[in-house]
Design brief:
This protein is an all-alpha fold. It has one domain. Helix content is 83%, strand content 0%. It is elongated, with a radius of gyration of 15 Å. The protein starts with a helix and ends with a helix. The mean pLDDT is 91.
């Protein structure tokens, strides 16, 4: 297989990581006004999201820079897509 085709898998994983990360952030921010302890909710959400993200990127890297570059590109494109889809105000 060509190198380009092999980078599509990390790109897709990066998109999935981005959707998971930013959807979790969106969900947390939407529910902050209803939370009894918003600071705790925000902190726990951050810990869960960053753990999810770092674990995914660590497995994705596999000791090479090319897959993580493709994954990061997918992550950033997922962010742009979600911002456009949900709007800046949500």
């Amino acid at each position: 297989m060509s190198q380009t085709v092999l980078l599509l898998i990390p790109f897709g994983i990066g998109v999935a990581l981005g959707v998971g990360y930013f959807a979790g952030l969106w969900h947390t921010v939407k529910h902050l006004p209803d939370s009894r302890s918003p600071y705790v909710s925000l902190f726990v959400s951050f810990l869960l999201r960053i753990s999810f993200l770092l674990t995914g990127f660590t497995f994705l890297m596999n000791g090479r820079w090319e897959p993580i570059s493709a994954g990061l590109l997918g992550f950033l494109l997922a962010r742009e897509a979600l911002v456009r889809r949900l709007g800046r105000n949500g």
